[in-house]
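Sorry, can you check?
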Amino acid sequence: MINYFGTPKIETERLILRKMELSDAQKVFDHWLSDERVSDNRVNAAHKTVLETIERISKIVSDYANDEFCWWGIERRIDGVLIGEIDLYDFDNITGNCEVSYSIGYEWWNQGYGTEALRAVVEFGFRHMNIHKIAAAHNIDNPASGKVMGKAGMVQEGIIRHMIRNAKNQYKDCAVYGILQEDYRKTIDRAQNYILTLV
């Protein structure tokens, strides 16, 4: 059975995962949602105006009232800069499974932040929420995201052809990854400095 905690603050070595706030909208727009380099790896198009982002963040903030809603802003501890987002979603109370997705602003790519955030959320899902399996997918033309998933302990389970259609009306094949709670528990002894702190 899944234990729901909503969206608690999670701290890692370099990051704070926290609830989004309406005041974050401009930063979210500037740092990743308006950037086509980031949106090319998402289903939805890049935002053209900050009003689109305000609407999206308003919906997220209102959804925090639901204990089954898990959506974090990714903030750097060193300077408080909001660099991305990560969420657990599509919970199945029968299987105990869910999915995870994340976006990091282009300026902060290839610095290990995506891996650190994903590891923390995977750990939270297994240790605190009692999730059975966490799955994720990435466009096959975005192999860097697959590396992030692999570093978080996820394994590729296959490729689904034309799994998504992006904002440019292009179908994309996606690599599907997953990690089971039992797999996570076998590797926890080899865990690095990503062990989370719930605040």
